[in-house]
Design a protein that fits this description.
Elements lengths: L20 H17 L4 E2 L5 E3 H8 L4 H6 L1 E5 L4 E5 L4 H10 L8 E10 L11 E10 L4 H18 L5 E6 L3 H17 L6 H6 L4 H4 L8 H6 L9 H16 L5 E2 L11 E8 L8 E7 L3 H4 L7 E7 H8 L13 E5 L2 H16 L4 E3 L6 H10 L4 E5 L1 H5 L2 E6 L12 E5 H11 L1
Parallel strand pairs: 1-5, 7-8, 12-13, 12-14
Antiparallel strand pairs: 2-4, 3-4, 5-6, 6-11, 7-9, 9-10, 10-11, 14-15, 15-16
Helix pairs in contact: 5-10
Bound molecules: adenosine-5'-triphosphate and magnesium ion (MG).
The site of adenosine-5'-triphosphate has 18 residues, from strand 6, strand 10, strand 11 and helix 12.
């Protein structure tokens, strides 16, 4: 029998961001919004739940995500299969098609939020995690591919992150992949003895994905496999070269990784990953690529597109290694009060301060001055206001500087301020 009083815990692989560390998330989110704005990207939000077939079609049946990582369930009301989004792109493209967003111009959009994958939880790998997802829709040229990469480089700079490197590849076009595929399958057939079960299962349905293996025993085989890059035609090569030229212009270093295929099936031409040595095994912080076929695959008019996603947990883990935690005071002003009269006055004064944009906590729950001051200090407020007794009756409040606010005022100094001047006085010192 289950114990009615037993603790209910969070689901494995799904994390809480508590107050304190939560400030880091807010700081990142606001910085990211500003960064994206400077490139003309606008926010869009799609539902967390979508029809399962959006992802099976959009991501590809023979991928890690669709084969084993999706949180899918049958909606008992109408027996439909639904899935918690494992990534943003498919939903964003669906919404663009549904609302005909590309009818008169390209769109630069981003989303930020939770995605869900049923993986084995470990550092940097969770079952609910968060992505910053950025998409340029309706644009075909290598200029936009390069700009997206340059954008990410700017984010590293803004965050003060230095140890990240860029790997690039081109997946060419479908015809080039088809030519490479035959050679790749025959290579896999020659090494069938060392292929793991997953690789054997995929070698005819999606042989390119076999190269994406993390199995150490298969690395040498994968390295020796025929390179898709060598099968690229003139156009794909010149697209790739044009991206590289623009990265050179921007002074961004990169290496060609001919084995990079990325986790999703819909990519073509440019694919890229930003990788770091500072996160242990889960080393990729950002991955992206071009997916010119996806609109058509999802029933829309063909439209070129490219995008990337940053894993926010990995990004924060990395960022913390460069930047100290942000200060996260509970408020600017903490109002200590004693007695009902003082409590009521405190509430009114607090509202006036909030009118001025000052953040205020009115002590709640009573207690001695000593315990209230303890709480004020723990709040990390810069100023405590004391409302009580004769002083209050005489129309003044005590103001105590908990932290040095300006050079004219000493920390821990206590001042008497007439109530009618209090709001102006405090506002000047925050
Ligand atoms: P990996 O090879 O690590 O499984 P992926 O190719 O599945 O990554 P993408 O689908 O490209 O990852 O997702 C974009 C980014 O999201 C990744 O680069 C990574 O930073 C982050 N990410 C992916 N899966 C997880 C996860 N389970 N937990 C936390 N972050 C993740
Ligand atoms: Mg994965």
């Amino acid at each position: 029998m289950t114990n009615a009083f037993a603790k209910v815990t969070a689901i494995r692989g799904m994390n809480d961001a508590l107050p304190g560390p939560g400030a880091r998330w807010e700081q990142l989110e606001s910085l990211v919004r500003t960064w994206l704005r400077t490139y003309g990207y606008r926010n869009m939000r799609t539902p967390i739940l979508e029809h399962t077939r959006l992802f099976t079609r959009g991501i590809g049946e023979v991928t890690d995500i669709v084969e084993k990582e999706m949180y899918s369930f049958t909606d008992s009301l109408n027996a439909e299969s639904l899935t918690m989004r494992p990534e943003f792109t498919a939903g964003i493209v669906r919404a663009c098609i549904e609302h005909n967003l590309l009818y008169d111009r390209p769109q630069r959009v981003y989303s930020m939020g939770p995605v869900f994958r049923h993986e084995r939880p470990q550092r940097g790998r969770y079952r609910q995690f968060h992505q910053i997802d950025v998409e340029a829709l309706g644009l075909a040229g290598p200029d936009i591919d390069a700009e997206m990469i340059v954008m990410v480089a700017r984010l590293w700079k803004r965050l003060g992150i230095t140890d990240v490197r860029l790997e690039l590849n081109s997946l060419g076009q479908a015809t080039e992949r088809a030519a490479h595929r035959a050679a790749l399958i025959s290579h896999l057939e020659q090494h069938v003895g060392i292929l793991d079960e997953e690789a054997r299962r995929r070698m005819y349905t999606n042989p390119l994905r076999v190269l994406d293996t993390k199995n150490p025993a298969m690395q040498a085989m994968a390295n020796a496999a025929p390179r898709l890059f060598d099968y690229l035609g003139e156009e794909s090569r010149s697209h790739f070269d044009a991206v590289c030229a623009r990265l050179d212009d921007a002074g961004i270093a990169y290496t060609l990784n001919p084995r990079m295929v990325r986790g999703l099936d819909y990519y073509n031409l440019t694919v890229f990953e930003w990788i770091t040595d500072k996160l242990g095994a889960q080393a990729t912080v950002c991955g992206g690529g071009r997916y010119d076929g996806l609109f058509e695959l999802l029933g829309g008019k063909p439209a070129p597109a490219i995008g990337f996603a940053l894993g926010m947990e990995r990004l924060i883990d990395l960022w913390e290694q460069y930047a100290p935690a942000p200060a996260d005071p509970e408020c600017d002003v903490y109002i200590v009060n004693q007695g009902e009269e003082a409590q009521r006055r405190a509430a009114v004064i607090a509202e006036s301060l909030r009118d001025q944009g000052v953040s205020v906590i009115v002590h709640a729950g009573g207690g001695s001055f000593k315990s209230q001051f303890k709480r004020a200090d723990a709040s990390a407020a810069s100023i405590a206001v004391i409302l009580a007794g004769d002083e209050l009756a005489g129309g003044t409040a005590s103001v105590k500087m908990l932290r040095a606010a300006d050079s004219a005022v000493q920390a821990n100094q206590q001042l008497q301020v007439p109530l009618e001047n209090l709001v102006a006085f405090l506002k000047d010192r925050i």
